[in-house]
Amino acid sequence: MSNRGNNWTADELKILIQLWTESSIMEIFDKQKKNGKAYEKLAQQLTARGFTRSKQQVESKVKGLRQSYHRARVSVYNKMLFFVLNFLFF
Asked: pLDDT, tens digit, for every residue of 18-76?
């Protein structure tokens, strides 16, 4: 049997992102170097809304979302830079 958990639903992701961007959670992320308490609080708030996820699952998803966001930003920047260098200067 696999250790892989259930896939996150669109509703779970939407609520996770809403909770993640709340000022009380962002304050925990900003004040502490280790974010275990913030991930635990996110997991508890998800459970209160009917979605059962562990602290580790929340941590993994948040880190993955953050990485995807940064990759997308870099990709857009690189495409813009390519356009500028290839079409405006030649």
From this structure: 998 888 888 887 777 788 889 999 999 999 999 999 999 999 999 999 899 888 888 87
Class of domain 10-88 as given by CATH: mainly alpha
Alpha-carbon separation of residue 39 from 34, 46, 60 (angstroms): 10, 10, 10
Whole-angstrom Cα distance, residue 7 to residue 76?
27
The residues near 28 (Cβ < 8 Å, ≥ 6 apart) are 35, 37, 38, 41
When computed from its CA atoms, the radius of gyration of the chain, rounded to whole angstroms, is 18
